[in-house]
Structures are given as structure tokens and as C-alpha cells.
Amino acid sequence: MQIQGYAIQLENKTCTPAPGQKPVERTDMFIHSEVLADGTQAVDVPLLEDDFWRWDADFDYKSNGCIKLKPADLKDPFSRLDQAGWPKNLALQVS
Fold first, then answer.
1. Residue ranges of E strands in the chain
2. Residue 70, Cα to own-chain centre: how many angstroms?
3. What is the pLDDT of residue 27?
4. Strand, coil or helix: what is 73?
5. Is 60 exceeded by the pLDDT of residue 1?
6. pLDDT at position 19
7. Which residues pair with 2 in a beta bridge?
8. Higher pLDDT pick, 15 / 53
9. Please, are residues 35 and 5 in contact by the beta-carbon 8 Å criterion?
10. Exposure string (b/e) for 50-79, b if CB count within 10 Å is 16 or more?
11. Residue 53: phi, psi to the nearest 5?
12. How far is CA 2 from the centre of its chain?
């Protein structure tokens, strides 16, 4: 899956199986939304059930195990972090 816009990566998680089933590790998990890399909406493609880079309605909450939010709801914490001056690039210092 390719996520182009705002995203927060989540750690891998082993799901608790039902009795008799094997545990499944969920990987590549994100909190994200259907937006372009710059956070804007893609052009609507008529007759396409789901435009992957466009948030159209509540049915866009559907995801392959990830957590999907409305674009405005996902942008809000990023804008608050920007106001607080959070570091966008981190460097590991090894001595």
C-alpha cells in the first residue's frame, strides 16, 4: 500500500487469534487519510467507486487494517505540532 499524505506509523502488532487459529502479525500499520502528498484532495474520477487519493465520504474510513481519519482530523495534530516547533528531522548522534 502506498500512502502519499499525512501519516503516523504504528508499531507491528500480533493479533490475538480465536481459539484454534494461529496468531497473525499486523505490519505496515498507519494512521492516515486519503489525500495527496501535499495534503490536498485529488480530482474526483466519476464512476470510480473509491478514488484512493480523495476523501469522498464516510465510506472512505474503510482500510486494510490501518486507521483512517478525515483529512482535517489527521492534519490537526500535525498543525499543533508545527505551532509547538516540533523537530521534523532527527539525527542520531553516536559517540
1. 7-10, 13-15, 24-26, 29-32, 67-68
2. 10
3. 86
4. helix
5. no
6. 92
7. none
8. 15
9. yes
10. ebebbbeeeebeeeeebebbebeebbeeee
11. -110, 25
12. 10
β 24-26/13-15 pair status: antiparallel
| Half-sphere exposure for 38 (CA within 13 Å, toward CB) | 3
C-alpha 93: how far from chain center: 29
Residue with cell 480465536: 18
CA 84 to chain centre: 22
30-85 tens-digit pLDDT? 888 888 878 788 888 777 677 777 787 777 777 777 888 888 888 888 888 889 88
Q: Do 6 and 33 form a contact (C-beta atoms < 8 A)?
A: yes
Q: Is the dihedral of CA 86, 27, 74, 46 positive or negative?
A: positive
Distance CA 75, CA 35 (A): 10
Scanning the structure block, which residue is given the C-alpha cell 494512521?
31
16's CB contacts (< 8 A; 6+ apart) are 23
- Cβ contacts of 79 within 8 Å, gap of 6 or more: none
